[in-house]
Structure formats: structure tokens, C-alpha cells
Amino acid sequence: MCFSAVASFTTAALLLPLGVYASRLAWLKDSRYLSLTVVPICFGIQQGMEGMEWLSLPSNQADVSRFWALGFLFFAYGFWLVGPAIAMWTIERRPRIKSQLLTIALIGFLFAASLYLPLFIHPDWLTIVVRQASIVYQTQLIYDRFLSRDMVHFIYLIIVLYPLYLSNLDRVRVFAGLIAISMIISTLFFSYAFVSIWCFWAALLSLYIIYIVQTLPTDGLRIKAEASDRGY
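User: That's the sequence. What structure does it adopt?
Assistant: C-alpha cells below.
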């Protein structure tokens, strides 16, 4: 995240317990939503890793800094390209849409692998610098020879958001819209540190998932409470 280690750790400290609370609520109300509540938890872990990255930068320990950077980028380049499709697959009941979601998850996995794995094969493809109070992950991509970064961002956007837009729940589509706006703004105004800044705004927006879970019908909650009272 931009700004400082304190800001990153504060964001992590906010997201992790609230994500656990949302998971508990989803378990009681509708366990299909557990996979969606993993999102704020993972964003919390990611922000914690960037906090560690901030702490490692002044020491000039390249290996330590690279370790935390790769941890952060695992979520940015990997998890977010697969996680939304899998989360929506567990929630979705329509067979045709579930099939589409599995296809998107596979495409996302292949795209994620093409972004992330080369950073291990070519260590010099990742450089970490600080610019305008933000951590900048300067990476080379296998697509750089024939695609602009804006086009890569667009493909990324489609893979992340399309599963959310397939939902028949208005609140999930609102969440997708908020994420899209944050990504567009980050691309237009903060392209120098797009990955770090977009992940920060998306992390904060993931708190909306708690609202989604809180507004679920309570029928499942009553059923589980009654079963518990009966000793089932």
C-alpha cells in the first residue's frame, strides 16, 4: 500500500478480524458465501505483507525485500485472477453460469501463471522502488513485446470482474462496479504504482462484502440455531 508500513498494518488489522467475523456470519447464514468472505481476509494478509515490505526496504536486504514482494504479488498477480470466479462458483446455483465460472477460473489461472511464474525464473524481472510515497513493483511481463500495460490491465479487469457481474445478486454487482471504478482511477492517475495503490483501494472496498453477508436472509441462521438447541 502507499504511504507507510503503519498504514499497511492498520489496514491489515482492520480487514483480518472483520473478514473472520464475516466468515462466521456466512457459516451461520449460508455457508456458500464462505468463499466470498475469504476476500477481505486475503486482502488483509496481502496488506500485512506490504507492511513487511516497507520495513525491509531501509535495510537494503534484497532477498528479504524480494520475499515480501513476491508474497504481495502472489495475491495481485495470482489469487485475484482465480479467487472471484471460484467464490462465485460456490454461490451460484444455475448450471450454465457455474460452467462459465469454471471456464473463467481456468483462464484466470493460466493468465496468473503467465504473470507470476516468470518472476521466479527471471529474478531481474522484478525491481522494488519507492516513488511518491508508494511502493512500485517494476516488473517485466512476457506480454510487454506485443501488449501495452493498459491492455494487460484491461484483461485483468475482465477476468476479475466478469464472475461478479454474472451474479444475480444486485449487491455483488455493486461490489464489482466499485472495484472497476477503483481500478480505472488507479490506472488513470496512479499508473506509476498501479499494483500497490489499486490493491489498497480494493482492500478497503472488500469491506462491502461484510455488508453483503449481513444482509443475507436469516433462515439458515435460525435453522442452525434450532439444530444446536436440539443437540444435533
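Confidence is low (pLDDT under 50) at residues 221-232.
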